[in-house]
Design brief:
371 residues; Rossmann fold; globular; binds uridine-diphosphate-N-acetylglucosamine; isomerase; UDP-N-acetylglucosamine 2-epimerase (Non-hydrolyzing)
Length: 371
Amino acid sequence: MTVTKTLICVVGARPNFMKIAPIVRALKAKATKLNLVLIHTGQHYDQTMKAQFFDQLGIPEPDKDLEVGAGSLSVQTAEIMKRFEPEVDYYKPDAVLVVGDVNSTIACALVSAQKKIRVVHVEAGLRSRDRTMPEEINRVLTDQLSDRLYTTEKLAEDNLAAEGVCRDKVVFAGNVMIDTLRYNLAQAKHPSELLADNYSIIEKAGHYSLWTLHRPSNVDNPEILQKLLTFIKEAADKIPVVFPVHPRTQKNIQKFKLSSFLEHPQIITLSPVGYLEMLGLMNNARLVLTDSGGIQEETTALGIPCLTLRENTERPITISEGTNTIVGSDITLIRKELDQILQTGGKAGRVPTLWDGHAAERIADDLLAWL
Ligand code: UD1
């Protein structure tokens, strides 16, 4: 690159941090002349949801934190747009790079497109076809607004083509979140460090299950949340449960007065944990039960069985090639799959193509040439 170009990279919520870290690292290594501006929207703001990820993943301090905080989907999206627009006016970037499918992703893509700034989307083309989830709407709209789209799996390209996105804009680059996983795996914290005295529960049992829940469809409805917590308690009779509780879930457990459902000698609840702690928890678990998107991919990369507590996934390769099984919120099915994993060890799976730890380097090479 001969002329200095300006690229704004956007992060906002927890799952963005693992995706942006290797991209920033690769771009800085390859393009000393690139003016790389990092903007954090502030969608996630707690120390547990933000700062410890920046520190552990070596993400540079953002040039600007828009500090939007919580709000309804529309208020949060609108507030991000309102606060991001002056940054685009100030930096006059050649392109804006967004990752994933959170509100910050669509909000910043829309501002950029409206200002005729080129949009780059990393993790493009994933589709659950479930538009009751805000993330699916964010994915479809962000891809429509994007000028360069990097995908993690081959099917994504077909999804984009079916929606009229020109194949010339799409590059199959691999999975940047798995770059972060591979880069950090040797530094992952062993659960004994995190759980301190509670680790004896796991040591005694010889194994544990790891649970995460935060989707509005699972945690915003008191009956569904109570049903899932009741099953966690049942599962704890068979295998110790480690459950880092997301702020949304924590608030709802308190609001619906469900704390007693987590009282069991084999249930260990935690505040949200850092990246290296979560990586250690996943890597040492007998199985993971989750409604997260990223964890479906991380468990596939680690070869750990995963039961997904959702009706669908936008990451089908974790099912067809990886260790993931969709179980929804059907307790009979969850129980059956859990028992089977405890008896047989679960799906073996293989690591998908280009989930090799070098996706961000491929993106940086392509992006710098394209810019
Ligand atoms: C968001 C993303 C979701 C992603 C998840 C990962 C959207 C639409 N959703 O959902 O795709 O999987 O992040 O965590 O973008 N809160 C805090 N501290 C924080 C952040 C949030 O207490 O640092 C609380 C707030 O009360 C907030 C609630 O958690 O209302 C939910 O946060 P929000 O960012 O609205 O959505 P998530 O459920 O985190």
